[in-house]
Amino acid sequence: MVAVQTLFHARPPRPPTGPAAPVLWLERLALPLLFPKEGRALAFPELEVYALGEFRVRYQGQELTPRRFGRQGAWRLLKLLLANKDRALYAEDLAEALFPELPPEKARQEVYTLVYHLRKALPGIVEREGEYYRLRLPENRFLDFERFEALMRKADLEEGLAAFKTLRQALELYKGPLFGDDPYGEWAEAERAYLQERALSGLLRLGELAEAWGTRRWPRKPTPAP
């Protein structure tokens, strides 16, 4: 460094706009093309599950069909694990729930096969702890029944218009019973009944809040004397 010179301006100089144009182009247009994975990660969750009503699964932005799982039973195994997403399940319990008609050893072998196919369709989704299996869900996920329950708990702590709006959001997610396309799955009966009761209580409270809010906003006109 030879010398330092300081310049003072009566008003801030206007920066040249020419060099800025390529930078703006790079930021708004080029980055999504150069780094498509990062762009996709911001656009949607890694795993999306819609289980209230018809069962649907999206992984990394792509819709997965039962055929993608190789075996129809792997699709059903995913449902069973989702219904018990916070619990570890013993291999024999899975075998009994999915293959009650088979001998125990044969049923366990079928479970091992289904776990293989499930892991192939959704890498890392199932982890094993000895003879127990549990779901390993990604942090960046959306489960409609999980979101529904979180909104219902939030509404329990709210009053008035805030509770009304939160209940509306929750009930918009409730498209039908849990795993409504598999109504005879006894392994989901307890969770299905619980969510149905929550939806019914939320609907009744929503009606009460709507009536109270309407009364406050539009008070009834006094009935004219005869």
Please name the fourth-level CATH homologous superfamily of the largest domain: Winged helix-like DNA-binding domain superfamily/Winged helix DNA-binding domain
Shape: elongated
Count of folded domains: 2
Per CATH, which architecture of the largest domain? Orthogonal Bundle
Q: Please name the CATH topology of the largest domain.
A: Arc Repressor Mutant, subunit A
- Strand order in the largest sheet: 3-2-1-7
Report the strand count.
Answer: 7
Return the average pLDDT rounded to an integer: 80
Beta content: 5-15%
Number of helices, where a helix is a run of at least 4 consecutive DSSP H or I residues: 8
Distance between the termini: 99 Å
Structural class: alpha+beta
The run of helices and strands is HHEEEHEHHEEEHHH
**Poorly predicted residue ranges:** 4-42
Largest sheet: 4 strands, mixed
**Cα-atom radius of gyration:** 27 Å
What would CATH call the class of the largest domain?
A: Mainly Alpha
Helix content: 40-55%
Structure description:
This protein is α+β, with helices and mostly antiparallel strands. The chain folds into two domains: 47-135, Orthogonal Bundle (Arc Repressor Mutant, subunit A); 143-216. Helix content is 52%, strand content 11%. The protein is built from eight helices and seven strands. It has helices at 20-34, 36-43, 72-83, 91-98, 104-121, 144-156, 160-173, 189-217, and strands spanning 47-50, 56-59, 62-64, 89-90, 126-129, 132-135, 141-143. A four-stranded mixed sheet has the order 3-2-1-7. Strands 4-6-5 form a three-stranded antiparallel sheet. The longest helix is centred in the C-terminal third of the chain and has 29 residues, at 189-217. The chain is elongated. The chain starts with 19 loop residues before the first helix and ends in a 9-residue tail after the last helix. Mean pLDDT is 80; it is low at 4-42.
